[in-house]
Design a protein that fits this description.
The chain is about 55% helix and about 10% strand. The chain has 19 helices and 10 strands. The strands form 3 sheets. It has a 4-stranded parallel sheet. The protein has a 4-stranded parallel sheet with strand order 8-7-9-10, with helices on both faces. A two-stranded antiparallel ribbon has the order 5-6. The longest helix is centred in the N-terminal third of the chain and has 31 residues, at about 100-130. It starts with a helix and ends with a helix. It binds iron/sulfur cluster (SF4).
């Protein structure tokens, strides 16, 4: 039985976000074929330009047929008639009614959702390897490649942002070699904010906008850009509230494993806002209200004695079992990659601002002060975030095949020892489900330090 299910079903916002993630395929088909919208493949949280130019951004795994528990399908249909709140209340009622058969079903909905995503990740990872991607790449790149082999042909374009990792940029280039490749739209981000880097970046953004406008047939005015950034700012505000105000508090609106699982869901869905920015912003806002409401009523769990363990990085791949293992060992896992890399910073939308310039500032800040192009900056980002979240410990995921981020661990450990004096450990990762016993042993030893 899932230890998460009992709580998650009571958040109708979580059910909606999970449903929209899993049921993406039908939604996207409708957009593409009925409404003639253009699908734009995105990865990492860089969906803004696709939204602002009237495209439909999609993190490509969402085009897969994801096995949705049949009850979640019913719930999806029921919600369109009764609304998600009623559906969630009903599930909560079933859960507390003690009717074990029905209760099991509710558990299964959430278990299935989480398992489905993880299973699919491993499937596209295998497909990436079978399709010839170098085995030297990390899990994240192999999976992304596999997603494009499988479903890339359904996209009209792929929106590529270069980052500090040369392997990632090489992977983006290699997308051209897949059969029926979508059009490539590039935003090259200069690695350092020196000289005329900002102007170059603004030019690159403008060029990408023109290319996307030609594709969608929709003109992207300054107002359109500002409107989208405004929605994005709402999402980021909610996300930060969940991370800081709720995530660092002593009383959670649910058990901490559930809370961590919600953070994982947000980490996945923040990449394309489940292809609908307005709906996602509303769901995020609703999630914050539901959490605060429960806390106000005293529903949830006192977590003051449970150490906060920051687990990072996860975008290149991580072992999902970590959440449950840490919980069983008395801790609470926190995931905050996008915040750490400064991708949750808001974009200035004031009337006199130039939205392209503001977007360039946002990207440049994330690149030079968050992700960084040197390990010193990147490790400072981890350190800053660990401090802000008042973390009691940090687990660093070292990925097989990562030569960019994973090799900063020695420097990070030294800085943490000097400046924070909190326990830290590294876990190696190759593929979901591999090495679980080893992860358990290492985490067991690590958690004894608290
Ligand atoms: S995990 Fe490492 S190799 Fe993979 S994309 Fe990130 S930085 Fe690059």
């Amino acid at each position: 039985m899932s230890i998460f299910a009992d709580d998650i079903v009571r958040f109708s916002s979580v059910l909606k976000i999970a449903y929209n993630f899993l049921a993406g395929r039908d939604y996207l088909k409708r957009k593409k074929f009925r409404e003639k919208k253009k699908l734009i493949s995105v990865a990492l949280p860089f969906s803004d330009l696709a939204f602002a130019t009237g495209g439909i951004p999609v993190f490509p795994i969402r085009m897969e047929t994801l096995e949705i528990n049949k009850y979640l399908v019913y719930l999806g249909s029921a919600s369109s008639i009764f609304g998600w709140k009623k559906v969630s209340d009903f599930l909560g009622f079933i859960k507390s009614s003690g009717i074990s058969e029905l209760s099991k079903t509710v558990d299964k909905i959430i278990d299935d959702a989480i398992d489905t995503i993880n299973r699919k990740y491993n499937e596209v990872y295998d497909l990436g390897i079978e399709s010839g991607i170098s085995s030297d790449f990390c899990y994240g790149i192999k999976s992304l490649y596999g997603m494009h082999v499988s479903k890339g042909k359904n996209c009209d374009a792929v929106l590529n942002f270069t980052i500090r990792c040369s392997a990632y940029n090489k992977y983006l280039e290699s997308l051209k070699t897949i059969a029926h490749p979508p059009e490539q739209v590039w935003v090259d981000i200069p690695p350092r904010d020196i000289g005329d880097a900002s102007e170059i970046l603004m030019d690159n953004i403008s060029r990408a906008i023109t290319q996307l406008e030609n594709l969608t047939g929709i003109t992207c005015s300054d107002n359109r850009l500002r409107e989208h950034f405004q929605i994005g700012n709402q999402v980021k505000k909610s996300y930060k509230t969940i991370l800081y105000e709720i995530g660092t508090s002593d009383f959670y609106p649910c058990n901490p494993a559930t809370f961590a699982e919600i953070l994982v869901l947000l980490n996945h869905t923040f990449q394309d806002y489940n292809s609908n920015a307005q709906r996602y912003a509303e769901n995020m806002n609703h999630l914050v209200s539901e959490m605060k409401d429960r806390i106000k009523k005293g529903i949830g769990m006192d977590v003051s004695k449970m150490p906060k363990i920051l687990v990072t990085p996860m975008f290149g791949g991580y072992e999902p079992e970590i959440t449950e293992i840490i919980y069983k060992l008395g801790g609470r896992a926190l995931y905050a990659d996008w915040e750490m890399l400064l991708l949750l910073e808001e974009i200035d939308v004031s009337r006199n601002s130039n939205p392209i310039e503001e977007y360039a500032k946002y990207l440049m800040n994330a690149t030079s002060n968050g992700i960084g192009c040197d390990n010193d900056t990147l490790t400072n980002s981890y350190l800053r975030n660990a401090k802000q979240m008042n973390a009691d410990g940090l687990i660093f995921i070292q990925l097989f095949g990562c030569h960019s981020v994973s090799n900063c661990y020695a420097m990070l450990r030294e800085k943490i020892r000097r400046e924070l004096e909190i326990p830290t450990t590294a876990l190696t990762f190759n593929k979901i489900g591999e090495n679980i016993e080893q992860v358990k042993t290492r985490l067991g030893a690590f958690m004894e330090m608290f």
